[in-house]
């Protein structure tokens, strides 16, 4: 045996890096269009009257959320898994033909599902359940992709040389299990072609149409148990997996506290799933479920802040790195946004606050400071760290990266501040009564007053998208650069001017 | 224990699964034990109403409109009585929504009329100046898919005992029977009869002509559904 470091195989990681960038652009571009459609409704016709059915807000909105969640974020999760997994398990995918095959199958099946989702959503084929809009044929395809991912993941874990599982692996395993459980239960549906008429006819109507197994309040309960925890296992757990690997690697600092990691991991696993009820406050679900949702949402601050503080303290004594490296900046501001977002969420889950916040743009703002500031920043940081190692080239431009960081930060700040003001204004106006006890405003008053904030939100979103395009350009130039790195890179990523 | 788990991925995964599944067991299962029971006055959707519900879903109306009146004075003043669980007994899927860019529609049938909806879908700002809702003109020409609505009726009657062709109690003490066709042709005939009632209150001549010729544009089904929300 030669005494040299392992060579890892990044074929599949690279494939998912491409989809992360491309689907990120698609998802964010659609988001920017939607933001401006709300401020300027004429934009619903941006491709003309004839195509209005496919370009209006209501068709694009599910496309935006699904493209960002299942396109950008999930690709990022897969890309980092196929990079991090091999490295912390000390095994190369190239060592097993089966693993390579599973990895590639995973990618191509995933891409086929993404394509079918885009087409079906534009055509208006949807079950209407948020982030679970796919009809049964696509649901089955999603389950197959997920099983292939699971086989590929546990296959790699089974072959590992490193006996003990690193923290990131815990989170990837939890992502796999959590999404599997949630997705299966929430998407239980019966295809309506199974119905048979009294006259003996069967196979009636659209073959892809289905009806939910759950009705009304039960359906709502399952949906928000899913909806909230899809955030948990799509936007929190795997992103924590990323930062636990990439921050120590990039900064050369060890994780501050193992005990805190343990506490925050198992705490998060136990507490998160209870919190879904906070989407249903003042609804017709049982009161005790609503109360549990509220209380556990507040408790959720502990494990969330546990991870975030662990990250920030990892930089103890090394804060000059934050000033020096835009890559570290992304990770540290990402952690800060994570803290901010996981404080904001519990505040919104308090019943009296929720009475104002629910159904308003404040909720939209909350989602976006988490997704843009935490998820987006962390995935881009992860790809920036991976690029020099995967493509064996230094990052094309450090100054472009720094510019991107500030443009996107400004974008996020504009986004959430405008949505805070819009949401609270709207909530307060809905409930306002005049001195005679009558409603003070008609509904349309509460819509037209939001115009300036919708415009500002559009600008914020546009800045973020511009930053993302700079990211894509930087990645492209990095890949195609001629400067090849000779040796295995340690710690901080090499960057050009 | 944690160190041991970290060396045994299988047991680690089992442990994680048990911990995450716990909340679902406690919160969701008890509620399922009491399946949604309809309150008096809640009837299944007719064929045309269900087809209209499909049009509503197809265009993600629920992305901007809720169907859940919360028990606050401001909401009951604006929208009517707060929502009761049993009113959703036949809602598969539920359509509560999560965002009110536009107003709640839970009881829109009580305060908007057929021709109001017609104008609103054609040009929202014509009835609500300042509205940011896009127009849905294609609904006036796209044909309604009655067959799929019928297939859904058959399915929910078979799998979930939704009482089609059976008496359901109404608030005034009377009984109502919601009919479901015995064949595809029968279902289409039932839907057309309902559509004619709606079209009689509409102004668009093309829609009237289409219904007279036996075709049902999506707008007619959508309005039937809107009117049923009370």
From TrEMBL, chain A:
<feature type="transmembrane region" description="Helical">
    <location>
        <begin position="295"/>
        <end position="315"/>
    </location>
</feature>
<keyword id="KW-1278">Translocase</keyword>
<keyword id="KW-0349">Heme</keyword>
<keyword id="KW-1003">Cell membrane</keyword>
<dbReference type="GO" id="GO:0020037">
    <property type="term" value="F:heme binding"/>
</dbReference>
<comment type="pathway">
    <text>Energy metabolism; oxidative phosphorylation.</text>
</comment>
<feature type="binding site" description="axial binding residue">
    <location>
        <position position="64"/>
    </location>
    <ligand>
        <name>heme b 1; low-spin</name>
    </ligand>
</feature>
<feature type="transmembrane region" description="Helical">
    <location>
        <begin position="136"/>
        <end position="157"/>
    </location>
</feature>
<keyword id="KW-0472">Membrane</keyword>
<feature type="transmembrane region" description="Helical">
    <location>
        <begin position="254"/>
        <end position="275"/>
    </location>
</feature>
<keyword id="KW-0679">Respiratory chain</keyword>
<keyword id="KW-0186">Copper</keyword>
<feature type="transmembrane region" description="Helical">
    <location>
        <begin position="322"/>
        <end position="340"/>
    </location>
</feature>
<feature type="transmembrane region" description="Helical">
    <location>
        <begin position="224"/>
        <end position="247"/>
    </location>
</feature>
<feature type="transmembrane region" description="Helical">
    <location>
        <begin position="371"/>
        <end position="391"/>
    </location>
</feature>
<keyword id="KW-0249">Electron transport</keyword>
<dbReference type="InterPro" id="IPR000883">
    <property type="entry name" value="Cyt_C_Oxase_1"/>
</dbReference>
<keyword id="KW-0479">Metal-binding</keyword>
<feature type="transmembrane region" description="Helical">
    <location>
        <begin position="453"/>
        <end position="473"/>
    </location>
</feature>
<dbReference type="GO" id="GO:0006119">
    <property type="term" value="P:oxidative phosphorylation"/>
</dbReference>
<keyword id="KW-1133">Transmembrane helix</keyword>
<feature type="transmembrane region" description="Helical">
    <location>
        <begin position="12"/>
        <end position="40"/>
    </location>
</feature>
UniProtKB/TrEMBL annotation, chain B:
<keyword id="KW-0812">Transmembrane</keyword>
<keyword id="KW-0408">Iron</keyword>
<keyword id="KW-0349">Heme</keyword>
<keyword id="KW-0479">Metal-binding</keyword>
<dbReference type="GO" id="GO:0009055">
    <property type="term" value="F:electron transfer activity"/>
</dbReference>
<feature type="domain" description="Cytochrome c">
    <location>
        <begin position="47"/>
        <end position="218"/>
    </location>
</feature>
<dbReference type="Pfam" id="PF02433">
    <property type="entry name" value="FixO"/>
</dbReference>
<keyword id="KW-1133">Transmembrane helix</keyword>
<protein>
    <submittedName>
        <fullName>Cytochrome-c oxidase, cbb3-type subunit II</fullName>
    </submittedName>
</protein>
<dbReference type="GO" id="GO:0020037">
    <property type="term" value="F:heme binding"/>
</dbReference>
<dbReference type="InterPro" id="IPR036909">
    <property type="entry name" value="Cyt_c-like_dom_sf"/>
</dbReference>
<keyword id="KW-0472">Membrane</keyword>
<dbReference type="InterPro" id="IPR009056">
    <property type="entry name" value="Cyt_c-like_dom"/>
</dbReference>
<dbReference type="GO" id="GO:0046872">
    <property type="term" value="F:metal ion binding"/>
</dbReference>
<dbReference type="InterPro" id="IPR003468">
    <property type="entry name" value="Cyt_c_oxidase_monohaem-su/FixO"/>
</dbReference>
<feature type="transmembrane region" description="Helical">
    <location>
        <begin position="12"/>
        <end position="29"/>
    </location>
</feature>
């Amino acid at each position: 045996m030669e005494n040299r470091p392992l060579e890892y195989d990044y074929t599949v990681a690279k494939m998912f890096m491409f989809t992360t960038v491309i689907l990120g652009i698609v998802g964010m571009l659609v988001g920017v269009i939607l933001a401006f459609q709300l401020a300027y409704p004429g934009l619903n016709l941006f491709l003309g009257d004839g195509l209005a059915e496919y370009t209006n807000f209501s068709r694009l909105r599910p496309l935006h959320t699904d493209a960002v969640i299942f396109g950008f974020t999930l690709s990022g999760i897969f890309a980092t898994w196929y990079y991090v997994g091999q490295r912390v398990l000390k095994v190369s995918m190239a060592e097993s033909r089966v693993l390579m095959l599973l990895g590639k199958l995973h990618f191509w099946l995933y891409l086929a599902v993404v394509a079918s989702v885009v087409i079906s959503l534009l055509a208006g084929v949807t079950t209407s359940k948020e982030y679970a809009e796919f009809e049964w044929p696509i649901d089955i395809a999603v389950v197959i992709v997920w099983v292939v991912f699971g086989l590929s993941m546990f296959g790699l874990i089974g072959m590992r040389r490193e006996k003990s599982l690193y923290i990131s692996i815990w989170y990837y395993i939890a992502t796999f299990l959590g999404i599997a459980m949630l997705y299966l239960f929430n998407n239980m549906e019966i295809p309506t072609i199974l119905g048979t008429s009294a006259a003996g006819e069967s196979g009636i109507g659209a073959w892809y149409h289905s009806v939910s197994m759950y009705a009304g309040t039960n359906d709502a309960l399952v949906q928000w148990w899913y909806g909230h925890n899809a955030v948990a296992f799509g936007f929190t757990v795997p992103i924590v997996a990323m930062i636990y690997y990439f921050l120590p690697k990039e900064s050369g600092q060890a994780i501050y506290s193992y005990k805190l990691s343990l506490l925050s991991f198992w705490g998060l696993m136990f507490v998160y799933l209870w919190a879904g009820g906070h989407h249903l406050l003042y609804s017709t679900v049982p009161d005790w479920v609503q109360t549990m949702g509220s209380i556990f949402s507040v408790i959720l601050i502990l494990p969330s802040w546990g991870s975030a503080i662990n990250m920030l303290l990892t930089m103890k004594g090394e804060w000059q790195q934050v000033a020096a490296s835009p890559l570290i900046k992304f990770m540290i501001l990402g952690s800060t946004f994570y803290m901010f977002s996981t404080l904001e969420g519990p505040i919104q889950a308090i019943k009296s606050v929720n009475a104002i916040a629910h159904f308003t743009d404040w909720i939209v703002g909350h989602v976006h400071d988490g997704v843009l500031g935490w998820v987006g920043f962390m995935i881009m940081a992860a790809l920036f760290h991976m690029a020099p190692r995967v493509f064996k080239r230094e990052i094309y431009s450090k100054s472009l990266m720094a510019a991107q960081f500030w443009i996107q930060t400004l974008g996020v700040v504009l986004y959430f501040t405008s949505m805070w003001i819009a949401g609270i204004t709207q909530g307060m106006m809905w409930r306002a009564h005049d001195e005679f006890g009558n409603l003070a405003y008609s509904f349309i008053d509460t819509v037209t007053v939001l115009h300036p904030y919708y415009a500002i939100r559009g600008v914020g979103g546009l800045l973020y998208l511009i930053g993302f395009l700079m990211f894509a350009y930087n990645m492209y130039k990095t890949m195609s650069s001629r400067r090849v790195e000779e040796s295995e890179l340690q710690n901080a990523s090499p960057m050009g001017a | 224990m944690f160190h041991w788990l970290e060396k045994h991925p299988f047991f680690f995964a089992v442990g994680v699964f048990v911990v995450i599944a716990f909340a679902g067991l406690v919160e969701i299962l008890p509620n399922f034990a009491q399946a949604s029971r309809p309150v008096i006055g809640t009837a299944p959707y007719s064929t045309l109403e269900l087809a209209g519900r499909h049009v509503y879903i197809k265009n993600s109306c629920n992305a901007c409109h809720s169907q859940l009146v919360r028990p606050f004075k401001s909401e009951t003043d604006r929208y009517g009585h707060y929502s009761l669980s049993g009113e959703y007994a036949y809602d598969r899927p539920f359509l509560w929504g999560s965002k009110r860019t536009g107003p709640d529609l839970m009881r829109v049938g009580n305060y908007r009329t057929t021709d109001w909806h017609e104008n609103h879908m054609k040009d929202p700002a014509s009835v609500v100046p300042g509205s940011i809702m896009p127009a849905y003109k294609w609904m006036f020409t796209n044909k309604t898919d009655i067959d799929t609505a019928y297939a859904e009726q058959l399915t929910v009657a078979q799998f979930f005992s939704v009482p089609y062709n059976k008496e359901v109690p109404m608030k005034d003490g009377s009984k109502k029977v919601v009919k479901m066709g015995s064949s595809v042709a029968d279902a289409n005939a039932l839907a057309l009869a309902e559509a004619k009632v709606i079209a009689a209150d509409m102004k668009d001549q093309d829609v009237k002509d289409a219904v007279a010729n036996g075709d049902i544009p999506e707008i007619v089904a959508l309005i039937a559904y809107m009117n049923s929300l009370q």
